[in-house]
Design goal:
The protein is an alpha+beta fold. It has 2 domains: 1-82, 2-Layer Sandwich (Pseudouridine synthase); 86-245, Pseudouridine synthase (2-Layer Sandwich). The chain has helices at 36-43, 70-81, 160-167, 183-189, 195-201, 230-234, and strands at 7-10, 14-19, 51-52, 61-67, 86-94, 101-105, 108-110, 120-122, 130-141, 144-153, 208-217, 220-225, 239-242. The strands form 2 sheets. Strands 1, 2, 3, 4, 5, 6, 9, 10, 11, 12 and 13 form an 11-stranded mixed sheet that branches. A two-stranded antiparallel sheet has the order 7-8. A hairpin with a 2-residue loop joins strand 9 and strand 10. The longest helix has 12 residues, at 70-81. The radius of gyration is 18 Å and the shape is globular. It starts with 6 loop residues before the first strand and ends in a 10-residue tail after the last strand.
Length: 252
């Protein structure tokens, strides 16, 4: 048992973990525990050839898949490139979409007007990007409307889900870059985020979680599920209504 990793599944070729919000995938500090890949290396045999197949933003929690050798990594990356992997996220957003579901089809590219170098936006000359979503819960919390969404990205652009939902008028709760004001992000990286700022953000990290992953593998199908963190799950306690539950993959 490794307390620094929440392991969902492991065999000789694969390691599937539930990354906590706030942990980077790749190291930015010397401490081995400060990144997911550092923790994976500590968990595995020192001779293991580790390859991280997918990555999540620092504040996004959920499923990350790691290959333990080059051959497995090459096979899995081919699956990702051919979009043969079913990925599902859950998010809590500001506002209440009028319909039970929808599709956001909008190209993405660099936001040249932003003070934040890594920020992208919807732009006509950007790369094609498509996101589908379905309402799971409509939430009333202290007089304000929020919604829990099930999300299936059909492309894999940087910050795609966060940008698309903000573009549609439903930014993710706690998103410091694409939410209420990008200065929240600058305040975070400059270590000047105040208690008042944190109160406006409502939650400690942005409320986006990669909860399901499915793909065909060898003789069968690999299907993984990761529970969201307690702060995320508790948000929906004061709910006004619950939409009918739907199958969690393929929109069926």
């Amino acid at each position: 048992m490794n307390p620094s990793l929440s392991i969902i599944y492991e065999n000789s070729d694969l390691l599937v973990v539930n990354k906590p919000a706030g942990l980077v995938c790749h190291p930015t500090k010397g401490d081995a525990y400060s990144s997911l890949i550092g923790r994976v290396r500590l968990h595995c045999d020192p001779l293991t050839d580790i390859h991280m197949i997918n990555r999540l933003d620092r504040e996004t929690s959920g499923i990350v898949l790691v290959a333990k050798n080059g051959e497995t990594a090459a096979k899995l990356r081919r699956l990702w490139e051919t979009r043969a992997v079913e990925k599902e996220y859950v998010a809590i957003v500001h506002g209440s979409p009028p319909n039970p579901g929808g599709v956001i089809d909008a190209p993405l590219g660099k936001d040249e007007e932003s003070r934040v170098a890594i920020k992208d936006r919807v732009r006509a000359d950007g790369a094609p990007a498509r996101t589908e979503f379905w309402v799971e819960q409509r939430i009333q919390r202290q007089g304000e409307a929020f919604t829990q969404l099930r999300i299936v990205p059909r492309t894999g652009r940087k910050h795609q889900i966060r940008i698309h939902l903000a573009y549609a008028g439903f930014p993710i709760v706690g998103d410091k870059l694409y939410g209420l004001d990008e200065d929240f992000y600058l305040a975070l990286v400059e270590d000047r985020l105040t208690a008042e700022n944190r109160q406006k953000l409502i939650v400690p990290f942005h409320a986006l979680h990669a909860r399901k992953l499915q793909f065909s593998w060898e003789a069968g199908v690999m299907h993984f599920h990761a529970p969201s963190e307690a702060w995320f799950s508790k948000f929906a306690v004061e709910q006004a209504s619950i939409e009918p539950k739907m199958n969690l993959l393929r929109g069926q």
